[in-house]
Design goal:
It comes from Candidatus Aquarickettsia rohweri. The protein has 239 residues and is α/β, with parallel strands linked by helices. It is built from 6 helices and 13 strands. It has 2 domains: 67 residues, Ribosomal Protein L25, Chain P (Beta Barrel), CATH 2.40.240; 160 residues, Alpha/beta knot (3-Layer(aba) Sandwich). The strands form 2 sheets. Strands 6, 7, 8, 9, 10, 11, 12 and 13 form an 8-stranded parallel beta sheet that branches. A 5-stranded mixed beta sheet has the order 1-3-4-5-2. The chain is elongated and about 65 Å long.
């Protein structure tokens, strides 16, 4: 059996053929060179993961035939990420790693010091899909529309709200254990490379945010995102 995993949006049912859309058809036949009757894995969050036979009708038509369900559940996702938009390839890296680390939802945001203020959300969704196929998770994180920081704070009200910003009141992220309600999800916010502005900090101080630092060094935004997600996810994993 091939190690290829393919995210399928439609329900996956035993022995019910699934027509492949053009992107998935092209990926299997032209990129991965899959042959007729080869087996791959297809998955989504509501159907689980299935072994499927590839049925090639012609170069423009192929289906998947689910033959065996091999997984029905995955680790619960508890972390929601909000991050200030970065340069294009860096945004792709963030989405890829956030998906691999089982982030539930992602909010690209604009702060006072955000330099790049737009991005291709469809491309980010594709990056998330490919990362999910590679890493073994059964779902794809929800990627929301771009929001300004003040709108995010009005629309997303979380009991657990963590802001990565080193200041005199911040605690080390590893000391969050006693401050998190583990029955609730946690929103973690990462600012731009230049840090939050005075206005941003003023907005954040009017929320229930807990300010944390990631140690003694100044990290690039991508590194801070990966480190914070991993740290908070581990707190949930060991409860």
């Amino acid at each position: 059996m091939s190690n290829i995993r393919l995210y399928i949006e439609s329900p996956i049912l035993h022995l019910v053929e699934i027509p492949l859309n053009k992107p998935n058809l092209n990926y299997l036949l032209n990129v991965m060179r899959v042959k007729d009757e080869e087996t791959i894995k297809a998955f989504n969050s509501f159907s689980g993961e299935w072994i499927c036979k590839v049925k090639i009708k012609n170069k423009n038509l192929a289906t998947l035939l689910p033959t065996e369900q091999i997984s029905t559940s995955q680790n619960k996702a508890n972390v929601i990420l909000a991050f200030s938009l970065l340069k294009r390839q860096n945004n792709h890296l963030v989405i890829q790693k956030a998906t691999e680390l089982n982030v539930k939802e992602i909010y690209p945001i604009i702060t006072d010091r955000t330099i790049v203020k737009n991005t291709n959300l469809n491309k980010l969704s594709l990056v998330a899909k490919e990362a999910a196929e590679q890493c073994g998770r059964l779902d794809i994180p929800i990627i929301h529309n771009i929001l300004n920081l003040d709108i995010l704070l009005k629309e997303v009200n979380m009991k657990n709200f963590v802001v990565c910003n080193k200041n005199q009141h911040s605690i080390n992220i590893l000391d969050l254990n006693k401050k998190i309600d583990y029955t609730q999800d946690t929103l973690v916010l990462i600012g731009p490379e230049g840090g939050f502005s005075t206005n941003d900090i003023s907005l954040l101080k009017n929320t229930n945010a807990t300010f944390v630092n990631l140690g003694n060094y100044t990290l690039r935004a991508e590194t801070a995102i990966i480190t914070s997600i991993f740290s908070i996810q581990n707190l949930y994993n060991y409860q």
